[in-house]
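Record minuted for completeness.

…
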Amino acid sequence: MATLGLSAAEREAVEAFRRDVVEPSMTSLVILDFWAEWCGPCRQLTPVLEKVADEYAGKGVKLIKVNVDENKFIAAQFRIQSIPTVYALFQGQPVADLTEARTESSLKRMLDQILAQLPIQGDEQQAQAQLEPLIEMGEAVLAEGDGERAVGIFTQLRDMAPDNAAVISGLVRALIAAGRAEEAKPLLDDLPESLANDPAIARARSALELAAAAPAGDDAELEQRVAANGDDHEARFDLAGAKLARGDRDGAADQLLEIIRRDRDWNDGAARKRLLQMLEAIGLEDPWAAAQRRRLSAILFG
């Protein structure tokens, strides 16, 4: 807002707005609420705005209220014609009109959409940025097959971020790789819905289910049964599980794909389901998993 030609009171209002609203909006998302004491709908909306802003403070959201009776010049600059009027500001510019978001759920939904598109640096975003390279290091150690070392890394990360889905998932899969699957299951019990439905948690559940399904004992007999009868799908299916339990994912995938090639509908498509579960546990974006999906597609559609 230019100050040339303004009265002293108007210049003071502009400077206060710059200090209290524009400057915080350079790094935060400001919810700017235009209201008045006499406005009934404003009083109804205030608790909603305050509660959500408090919950989203860690995400870099700040609530600033502008009384239109006390700040007529600022209200005029925003062409406020009715109240409540609520805007989201970032770097001094309105980025969304939040006026119609009158409930917690609708306001949160709109804020989530905005925050996903802007480089807001709240405490939670900064903490996540610090965690990401450490999570990547733990995943790299886990991919190398050093389960115990990965357990140590993810245990420390969980102390730092106990509610981070990627950390919980990494710890569960590390415990499984270290042969400590019985310690992994409690980590997935009674998770809040916000975490339970996270793709990282689904990946950990798949890994745990695969570990529980692995056949016990020596797999030499299974190898002999498959060699004697290539259509012994039950033996081949168990052999895939045994290979996966030993960390031989290539061998496991080969056996499952061979069942699908020979009889894709065997046991209600059990081999395809197990292969997809295996890929989910490894990570659908993993290059190895992508290669197996291509092999599966070649069999199903080739």
